[in-house]
Amino acid sequence: MGIDPGLTRCGTGVVEGSVGRPLGLVDVSVIRTSSTLPVWQRLAQIEAGLEARVEHYRPDAVAIERIFARSDVSTIMGTAQASGVAMLVAARRGIPVALHTPSEVKAAVSGNGRADKAQVGAMVARILRLDAMPKPADAADALALAITHIWRGGAQARLDAALARSRR
Amino acid sequence: MGIDPGLTRCGTGVVEGSVGRPLGLVDVSVIRTSSTLPVWQRLAQIEAGLEARVEHYRPDAVAIERIFARSDVSTIMGTAQASGVAMLVAARRGIPVALHTPSEVKAAVSGNGRADKAQVGAMVARILRLDAMPKPADAADALALAITHIWRGGAQARLDAALARSRR
Catalytic annotation on A138? Predict the structure, then answer.
């Protein structure tokens, strides 16, 4: 399951498959919250939406976009908090979490770390053999995260787990 | 209950009382997480620690330090995520949440919005009639948040609730 975190739109995408085999779309959705609500109610709605999806689809792993402090300052706090909620929902169920940067995702799905939103959306549609580009962009980005994780995530997750064990 | 959010140290303080009456210390503690763990495990530990305290003390309200995007960039992401977890723990139980800025807290407890940590700690000890300043600073800050909320929070929380209702 890929999650593109955001307070206003939090994209989620579930993809099945493995390296070297065709990937399939299982689900794509966007959790929306109203900017007229206080942040804490919006975070609680995002948690409830992610809980429902994780409970239903039982993903093997959750891939979340890595947020940087240098991102857009006006939305950074909400995005960081939404990503924290996404990590929490996975971690407390023991589901492995991986963070991928936007350029890693762009490079994985399109071969170009600076691809624009339309290129990423077009490649996601092609990889998953969809008739149209998933919309909005948050939905396409969540699927791109899930694809990236399957294609490059497995080995990295095993390495992280081994490192975490060795640190204890 | 006041919460001074942080990934490495998350201070919590429970204070009882009301405006015009002496306030009393109920509990003060710090949830610590190891920087060798992945962020998601640290957030899950903070959630578990806050859950246990909220479950035990059943606070009437939770006051959390308001984080600004212009704060220290090296810790801003973790602090924002820890504050998101704190908001979530309160919001999903229906406990009213209030955010207070550091200068509001300093002004409320010491009369000076630019008071330093030692001044805030000394005033917290005096207000709660403690023999010594609560340590570490995160613990004192959490108590200062709880005191601030009691002294200035009640009216604001009722106003916010009325505004939220009128927006629906």
Answer: yes
Contact A119, A83 (CB under 8 A): no
pLDDT in tens, B48-85: 999 999 999 999 999 999 988 766 677 888 999 999 99
- A66 chain-B contacts, CB cut-off 8 A: none
DSSP state of B151: I
Helix locations, B2-153, DSSP H:
39-57, 73-91, 102-110, 117-127, 137-148
Taking 80 as the threshold, does the pLDDT of residue A145 lie above it? yes
Q: Which of B27, B47, B65, B141 is catalytic?
A: B65
Query: B69 and A76: CB-CB below 8 Å?
Result: yes
Length of chain A: 168
Interchain CB contact of A40 with B (< 8 Å): yes
CB contact under 8 A, B97 and A160: no
DSSP assigned state of B69: T
Q: Would you list the domain boundaries of chain A? A: 2-167
Closest partner CB to B84 (pick from A73, A76, A84) = A84
Question: What size, in residues, is chain B?
Answer: 168
Asked if the interface predicted TM-score (ipTM) of this complex is over 0.90, the answer is: no
Pick from B64, B70, B72, B81 the residue to mutate for testing the A interface (most A CBs within 10 Å): B81
Whole-structure pTM value: 0.89
Express each pLDDT in A31-41 by its tens digit. 999 999 999 99
CATH of segment(s) B2-167: 3.30.420.10
